[in-house]
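input
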Amino acid sequence: MTPTEEQAAVVDAVEAGGALKVKAYAGAGKTSTLKLAAQALGRSRGLYMAFNKDIAAEAARKFPTNTKCRTAHSVARAATRPEISRKIDNPLEPSHHLAVRYGLGPLKLPTTIGKDLELSGSKVARMVADGVARFCRSAQPEPLTWHIPVESIVPDEEAELLRASLLPYVKRLWEEYIDPAAAGAITHDVYLKLWQLSRPRIGADFILFDEAQDADGLMLSVLRAQQCQVIYVGDPYQQIYEWRGAVNAMDFIKAPERALTESFRFGPAIAQLASRMLSLMDEDTPVRGQEHIASRIEHDSEFGQHRYNAILCRKNATVLTHLAQGIARGDRVAVRAKLDELRAFADGAERLMRGERIGYPASLALFETWEEVQEYAESLAGRDLQPLVKLIDSEGVDYLRLILTRVSPESEADYVISTAHRAKGLEFDSVYLAGDFKFKTGEEGETTMTAEEKRLLYVAMTRAKHVLNVSEIRRDLYSMFRDAGV
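output
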């Protein structure tokens, strides 16, 4: 291939040596660029590090033989003692068992919305386990209070007191995880953390670290400690995993920077809309599309009027709603979402109808009765839940469970319904955006979004190659552009 000027500049910078940061927009040919860089360093030993094994396996088919393609977890597991790594195969301990074993009982916490938050012992135990999980993704040498997640509706003072009371349990659970004699199971992040704590030296002359914007504190600390050349590649505007511990490494990496701003995925129309989103995030450099790729933005057509390859949603509840509508039309529908969480919504609705309090899923946990959910769904704040609540009211919970059994494999489906998070890294000929992307009204009445929500919408938009339908968010989207002057 003949590299573009931007790609050639990246390769030249890699050959010059030293750390490098490459800002690569959506569809900007980063894999082909990294392949060129690896070829240019043909006499050196390289390591391409990906976040999942599918991406690593695909890269292995494309990269030259001087570059191994692996995930960070596979590198860490190879360096982990067998008596620890074999605990991966142990049965997981249910949260309610952990609660009993640690003596964790139910709690009632005040909230900023005027209604107490009731936590079961099982939910408290999950907070302890989540505290360990966040510690495992951080750079810290031991668990700290801020690793423990607490619902944002709990006032700061009460949240800090709760974290302080749970920290000893978090430390205890971590010690059990790394004790070869302890019977419990561990997650893959546990041996990754042990690897980081060992201060490893990676056997390579250069490292190509992909999707760097989604790196957590742990991986940053590992890579910063290496003595070889590290090339960080990512798009800061596709960083959508803050809730998982990602820190947007592109902002923290101190290294010379090059950019890949020409997208090979879509044409000018989609590029123009994506560039307006970039402007909202204070980015002056637009993304450039391909003139020879036909692309268009649709503003006023519903999903049923045309066929699309994908419906992208912000929430699992919206995925369920569109799935039910598709099944009712007789469509063959594939789903990219956590089906267990979708089933949990049906279970939670049924329990609320029986008058039981629940702690999971989060979208239902604050309600005491199904009637409260119905009232909330009629409000402006609860409009995302309204179609799903109406579906349950008209067809019943069992129907919801039934349609989850009707999900088709992607290879046989007419289209895919996915959360935007699950669609990251994918591309589709045509994309329909659901109406649940989270806009808000600012202090002066302007339409806006949080920084994280802007990035999520940008990711969703840039999955489309030829057709992008924004009908359901058109009013809020263009009001936001107008109010921001972009």
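quick obs: The mean pLDDT is 91.
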